[in-house]
């Protein structure tokens, strides 16, 4: 832990967050010879994987590529045990990285950032922390590594304070665990998190009631242990794996079939979908090139999955409730699961459709629906996701040189240049910010690319004698327009209830936030911006080159 004395401390850079992004950013800053400190609210490293400890919590990217690629020795020395790692294994991996590169000595744990304001000249930042001692830090560059999915979204239900039982949010699960043995538990939410948690909770509860507003597609994960032979094979092939990731649409090491779903014959298409279903995982999206570009093509995949749900769920009425009808497959985040639909064949699991009969209030006994029906519960679990992408940054709410806060600047929705910087906020970098590929990709791929770009930019500033950099408002506006056009070229914005649009947070502006133009295309753009002397940015300083 960094020993920060009461009073001011000067750093070249302050990084907020010690997950995948913050750890690698610190490593790169050290390589540049810059003084840096990481401020982390949690008591340990991990970011998302420190907090998300709910039953069933797993990654939905396969373990062999949900990891860093920057160090060849690290790739070879760490061995994953499962195809899809559980939260404790990912946390152990990040602990290993922190120890291997001796990162903890520059991380201040259990430190909440309570404020950040730019200097009047835009050449530095003052960062306030809420450690109880009033510690204030000063830095030239502020770098946010706060994650895209870290601001828990607890629904504002009337009467929650009257509930006689216990309630939890999956994104802030107690580290000591929660014993639900023999208890009546209600789960609100059936997105990716709910789909993971429901089968795990059902194993122990006396009765599990699932409150579903939106039915979702899900592909079986087909999880299992990785054999020694499989581990040796991917370690031997890492160079090629990373090349495929870098050239891909979404940072995953698989290639999308360039055939249209509509060009294939019906039996050929069914066979292809069946093979992808049996293999399991996110690769199902790569079966045909136009699943996210053409509504008719998408419907072939959507109906295939609905048929599988009908086959799995024995009660026709329950199966019908589970069939997604209001959006196409993968237009919202596409979950993968371990026996999710099979769980509804249990006698001790009930599915409640709260779209047709909404939750009206929490009462002492449980949840009351609009119809007046009360579901009696001992425990209530909110699997309601996060205020995604913008939420973590807006909770930090930094203020620019003129006092304008990020919340004020983003009142109508986010605006960024490349998802990396915001006009009006000089010397601020946002790792995987809004309008970057972020959640549409394998996150470590996007994180490493962003960190490497920021490190290259800082090196450029040092070499040119500049100490101030800010996104140009016109470049920012043009990037926002391009982000919208890239999204509109897909089916993604049509899923009106998607958190990609902020639809899960009441009052949040409806803006499609992740960049949908593809990971490789985005990387090329960022590379070109840097090669052209950081086009779209203004830099200056006492020794800056003309």
Automatic annotation (TrEMBL):
InterPro entries: FAD-binding_Monooxygenases, FAD/NAD-bd_sf. The keyword Transmembrane helix does not apply. Keywords: FAD, Flavoprotein, Monooxygenase, NADP, Oxidoreductase. Its cofactor is FAD. It holds the Pfam family Pyr_redox_3. Belongs to the FAD-binding monooxygenase family. This is Cation diffusion facilitator CzcD-associated flavoprotein CzcO. It comes from Pseudonocardia parietis. The lineage of its organism: Bacteria, Bacillati, Actinomycetota, Actinomycetes, Pseudonocardiales.
């Amino acid at each position: 832990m960094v020993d920060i004395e009461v009073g001011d401390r000067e750093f070249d850079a302050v990084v907020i967050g010690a997950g995948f992004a913050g750890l690698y950013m610190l490593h790169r800053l050290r390589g540049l010879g810059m003084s840096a400190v990481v401020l982390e609210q949690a008591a340990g490293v991990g970011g998302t994987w420190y907090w998300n400890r709910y039953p069933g919590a797993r990654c939905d990217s396969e373990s062999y590529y949900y990891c860093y690629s920057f160090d060849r020795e690290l790739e070879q020395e760490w061995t994953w045990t499962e195809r899809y790692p559980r939260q404790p294994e990912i946390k152990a991996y990040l602990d290993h990285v922190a120890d291997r590169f001796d990162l903890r000595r520059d991380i201040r744990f259990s430190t909440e950032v309570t404020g950040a304001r730019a200097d009047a000249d835009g050449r530095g930042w003052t960062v306030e922390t809420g450690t109880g001692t009033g510690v204030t830090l000063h830095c030239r560059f502020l770098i946010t590594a706060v994650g895209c999915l870290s601001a828990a979204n607890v629904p504002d239900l009337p009467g929650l304070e009257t509930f006689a039982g216990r309630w939890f949010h999956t994104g802030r699960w107690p580290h000591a665990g929660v014993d639900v043995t023999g208890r009546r538990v209600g789960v609100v939410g059936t997105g990716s998190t709910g789909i993971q948690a429901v089968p795990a909770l059902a194993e122990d509860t006396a009765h599990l009631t699932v409150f579903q507003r939106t039915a979702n597609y899900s592909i079986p994960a087909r999880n299992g242990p990785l054999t020694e032979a499989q581990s040796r094979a991917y370690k031997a092939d890492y160079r090629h794996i990373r090349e495929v990731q870098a050239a891909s649409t979404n940072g995953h090491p698989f290639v999308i079939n360039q055939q249209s779903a509509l060009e294939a014959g019906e039996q050929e298409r069914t066979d292809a979908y069946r093979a992808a279903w049996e293999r399991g995982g996110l690769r199902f999206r790569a079966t045909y090139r136009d699943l996210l570009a053409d509504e008719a093509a998408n419907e072939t995949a959507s109906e295939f999955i609905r048929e599988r749900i009908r086959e799995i769920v024995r009660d026709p009425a329950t199966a019908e409730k589970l069939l997604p009808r209001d959006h196409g497959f993968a237009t919202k985040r596409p979950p993968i699961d371990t026996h999710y639909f099979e769980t509804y064949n249990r006698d001790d699991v009930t599915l409640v459709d709260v779209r047709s009969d909404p939750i009206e209030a929490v009462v002492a006994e449980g949840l009351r629906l609009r119809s007046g029906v009360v579901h009696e519960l001992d425990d209530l679990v909110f699997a309601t996701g996060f205020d995604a992408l913008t939420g973590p940054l807006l909770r930090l709410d930094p203020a620019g040189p003129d006092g304008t806060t990020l919340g004020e600047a983003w009142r109508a929705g986010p605006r960024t240049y490349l998802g990396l910087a915001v006009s009006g906020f000089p010397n601020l970098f946002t790792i995987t910010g809004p309008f970057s590929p972020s959640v549409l990709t394998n996150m470590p791929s996007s994180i490493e690319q962003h960190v490497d770009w920021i490190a290259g930019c800082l090196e450029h500033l040092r070499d040119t004698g500049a100490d101030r950099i800010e996104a140009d408002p016109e470049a920012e506006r043009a990037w926002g327009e391009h982000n919208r056009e890239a999204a509109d070229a897909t089916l993604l914005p049509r899923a009106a209830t998607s958190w990609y649009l902020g639809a899960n947070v009441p009052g949040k502006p409806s803006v499609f936030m992740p960049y949908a133009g593809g990971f490789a295309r985005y990387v090329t753009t960022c590379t070109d911006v840097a090669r052209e002397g950081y086009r779209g940015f203004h830099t200056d300083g006492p020794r800056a080159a003309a």
